[in-house]
Design a protein that fits this description.
Number of strands of chain A: 13
Low-confidence stretches of chain A: none
Order of helices and strands of chain A: EEEHHHEEHEEEEHHEEEE
Strand order of the largest sheet of chain A: 2-3-4-7-8-9-10-13
Largest interface: A-D, 85 and 85 residues
Distance between the termini of chain A: 34 Å
Oligomer: homotetramer
């Protein structure tokens, strides 16, 4: 008989918004929560026997109830509450994995409106990167991976690419001053793994990692996107003692200099085509010395 | 024989990035340009005779060449150069319509990186709304419509909805304190229409309109999204003398209060479901007294 | 005071699936319904007075109730029921516009499974084009526009492009045997406009129009996509007496022949790049002699 | 110093269309190819030294050249040619992973057009599922994973869900006759792993697996989506001796029966809401007895 292998189930993309109201000043958290539960699930696969199956509808309800019972201090902390709950309250469930996307909102300010009576309850959704986290718990140990995607950055200079391998299919011209642009997608794993350890400040940690990434991106005079990737990863590991490893997936968003000679025009690094497909894709993990890699090769978005 | 009606052709979604370099400080413009040309095009439709057809590939080339020849001061000004060119240089072309999306980039600052040596050539793509414009020219008159989409805003309070019409299919409960959230999509038409008039500051105009929209959104104690829409439109018309009309398309991004009573919990405007579909959709034009509406009922994105 | 112009409101993207069960053989209709209502709506815009506003939530409920009360014979017929209801039952509502997307499903057959006991209740969603319609009613007259989008077609030969206008920005080489590919998006308006006239068979009409489009696409030896467009439109008008006009929006999905000479290889119309952006965009209306165009220049999807 | 972990690079989403012409009858292959190369890449990450880096632009060129040199018999066979080339020709490259999406086209037939002179060079893009494969090669062994996504199926009856675990957050009502719908995403690994073995017929294998999946979906009277998943997986393993394991990711596309009682209407399994988010997500691997799982937990699309 064919054998049942790794399996998991749950509710994906539960959209919850929590408003905390301090008088006229309100605070928002806007999350997209996905729950995957594993355990003693042979019977439901083999016979459709649901005794061990807590409905995915219940998982959804739990997200809403916990947003009330615990509030949402941070996505990571909220995910920890949820993962602990499923594993500790349902004996057939041995492992819970919670993935959360967080959408940022900023208070609309007097600078936005030109009116300093703008109240404390109006918000505009911040663009830019989406913050991510994944919490995995087996009843004893924790694995917390934080991350971001869609942090789109560009260096308009200080990037070269030459000296590469060539074969009979190589036609690329060497570049001594090119645009380097990418959508940073990154996931980093925290050293914290036990309730016996003090948990980090999840928000503070996030801000520190993001600063390391941006600083290394700006500061690296780049001869390849791989070099920039490693510099970003190394900065994170060196500047955040609580991070064990970080993985990046970096599309090389090609900006090709347009050949304007046919029109009698020069193009001294002024006019570029922003290309869509194909794109280079550079992926790597950078680890603290001694750490064992746990982040999968393929990053997933939710 | 079936009759050929309105027709137009051109190149859509030409992606151009222009870098202006002032020493170590660089400036970026990142546009998505779509060109639609109309004129004496009967023969190409009826017989495939291309004599009057300037290739769409040439339209694309022109975008890149003009980015060099004229630079990109603003999307509107760039579109004006393009529209004038096609109509004035190709006798069979009687009308040109240029649509442009602009993607915003911000210089990465010391605040982003914690490093005050951050240079002048590193950028992060700004999220939030996308700026839009459409330039139409027939050789004499101009019509300039500016706009934005995906400006996502939320009022966490100061919104009610009651006193509405009811029929046998009405089950909605009246709301005395609800979340009001929308993705603002707006297009506004400038009074400027002739080369004899002084052109407005396109960037200054954009900032003023956006401020009017945000201020009215914040300041309106709302009994319906229609009321908020009109308040936003009226603010724009009153505060921007150069704007003749503005049209909005506002999805009502429903945030439903979750019923937590089954779990023994209250929910005093704290925990909401952010719903996807269906959504209310509120659309209207607000005009300056005496203006004649020219913006179509259905807004289009590019 | 700024003036309120054209305005409409309603519920968009109401997703309804109806199952009709004839014993073991079931039938599916899967629609996405969007409702826009207009009328005497000044007070809600000016004062937030909702007396004339039937809630969009009620519009949604009506879709579900009517799917039970009337069934869904065709999207067009369903839209007619809805439009008539809103205009006739709510005096402040003077006009209703119903847009419907229909998703096709096919019964899974013995050919799909290799098992001729496959029952009558299993379906696979058909890919290919999405069927569309828009019903507008003002209490007296009807306007019915049917359509489709995402009908992606390709001719691997029988397409040329040469003899076009050239200017100083023209670099395109003439083509004497190219691929012609497009995603057909079309909307056609029916002559039917009064309850006094017999309504057409909406499903039969749709199949006839689609056949005309495909046949003209196949049969036209093309010297430009405009020529193919007109041929498709003329076929529809000539072969469907109940259609007054049809509008197309046809992206020219460029397939560029790859230059393999650098690798010592020839490429006799074998290997192509399928490009994304930019793309040519060809749009036109074809009308029955004497008909007055009513389909807007910009087609919208929902 | 932070340590470089798993890393790979290459060109993603190379879009290639190949036309094979047999007189007037043409044949199409339409692929989206993504290449990831790994090997001795420390220096490029640490120092930006590109000596070992074959440019991603060259990887792109190779796709086009190979489409000419080898043709495209099947996506799997094409991927095998590419993977072998990179590993065998570039000493620093130790491993190549090729992922391919294939878009299906059908010849437009007389049945589509009502005209039996329809030629052999006109095609319509088939909707429905997208075929996928991933080829991995380290110079000795092969791993071939084939798959599909977006095969959307529905059983209008023969699905129940009851007898599940309940906790204080459970409010779901048991269902004795519900709609079961999902978008099948599946990946299956072939036993073939050495050039010494005869390779399977990749196209024949694909058709057999798809039939097994559809047949099991139709034939399973389901008490849970997990049961249906296992039945589909077991069918594949039992009916395709060359398949070692298969993994599914199945969103439970909820169709909720609408409560029409408030309108005085019954709803005997007729009218449903097709919901978007959240959705149940059921994922599992089914293996041949003795096989070792190699397909990752998270399926990726390209």
């Amino acid at each position: 008989m064919p054998v049942l292998g790794q399996n998991q189930y749950g509710k994906a993309e539960v959209r919850v918004v929590r408003v905390a109201r301090e008088g006229a000043v309100h605070h928002l958290k806007d999350l997209n929560v996905s729950i995957a539960l594993s355990g003693d699930m042979a019977d439901v696969h083999h016979f459709g026997a649901n005794t061990h199956v807590l409905p995915t509808d219940t998982a959804k309800n739990t997200v809403y109830a916990f947003a009330k019972e615990y509030g949402i201090e941070s996505a990571e902390q909220f995910g920890i509450h949820l993962a602990r709950h499923f594993v500790s309250s349902q004996p057939p469930i041995h492992r819970a994995r919670i993935r959360i996307e967080e959408y940022g909102w900023e208070r609309i300010s007097a600078a936005d409106t030109g009116d300093d009576t703008t109240g404390g309850h109006s918000f505009v959704r911040r663009g830019g990167e989406t913050r991510l986290c994944e919490i995995t718990h087996d009843g004893e140990r924790w694995q917390v991976v934080s991350g971001l995607r869609d942090l789109t950055v560009m260096n308009a200079t200080d990037s070269e690419f030459w000296g590469y391998a060539k074969d009979k299919y190589t036609t690329l011209q060497e570049a001594y001053d090119r645009i380097l642009a990418t959508d940073v997608s990154a996931r980093w794993r925290h050293a914290w793994e036990s309730d016996d350890q003090a948990a980090p400040s999840w928000d503070g940690s996030y801000e520190r990692v993001k600063k390391s990434i941006l600083r290394a991106f700006c500061a690296t005079y780049s001869y390849s996107l791989q070099q920039t990737l490693y510099a970003m990863g190394a900065s994170v590991i060196e500047e955040s003692p609580g991070i064990e490893e970080i993985r990046f997936s970096l599309p090389n968003k090609h900006h090709f200099l347009v050949d304007l000679e046919a029109f009698g025009l020069s193009n001294d690094r002024e006019v570029y085509v922003a290309a869509d497909r194909p794109y280079g894709l550079i992926e790597a993990t950078v680890l603290r010395n001694g750490a064992v890699a746990a982040i999968p090769v393929d990053l997933t978005n939710v």
